[in-house]
Design goal:
Helix 2 crosses helix 3 (56-69). It is built from eleven helices and no strands. By secondary structure, the protein is mainly alpha-helical. The protein has two domains: 5-30 and 147-217, Orthogonal Bundle (Endonuclease Iii, domain 2), CATH 1.10.1670.10; 40-139, Endonuclease III, domain 1 (Orthogonal Bundle), CATH 1.10.340. The protein is globular.
Amino acid sequence: MMNQLSERVPSVANIRLFRNKLIHWFNRNKRTYPWRETRDPFKVLIAEMMLRRTKADQVKSVYEKLFSEYPDLESLASAENKKLENILYPLGLKWRTPAFGLVAKDVREKYQCKVPETREELSELPGVGEYVAGAVLSVAYGKKEWIVDSNIVRLFRRYFGIKTSKEGRRDKHVIEMAKIYALGRNPRKFNLAILDFTALVCTPKNPKCDKCTLKRNCHYVCSQS
């Protein structure tokens, strides 16, 4: 059971300082992927669905092959399940494969081929939850929308010294921190920065504390497991 102190959201000033340091790091170390070179909401949506529980480097070739075969929403909505299975097979998690065709069909039929611009509507699409909805809204539409995954929870916990539940992603204080973090002129850049930092520096095991731009104010003891 978390005490009141552990659930306290850090000040807006501290979260902004944290974000500014991440942006400074990101400007020099950001990763490049094809889905970051487009603002097409549908291509961003499909990429984010692929990235669930899958490393970005694994997704790149599959993403490129999928859109080479099916360049737009209409063609993907009409794709045969077997062909989609063959393309998406390297990503594993076969259970999610049908969602790619279904989400294309839903956007075509319910929204006239335009990806929704609200978290509520996006979250109702097949294979899309809170995280993917927030990523599409911030990365494709540039909206001040929050994202939280297990990596972001880990970074918040380490840097700010907060406690979280085992799930973490649904903790109210964690979501509130993510909302504050996303406020500002460039939420797209903010969210990409935190994703890259957790992938390259503040990793689950053996984080690169010696090279960390956040280490001065971080609560994490790097020698701990």
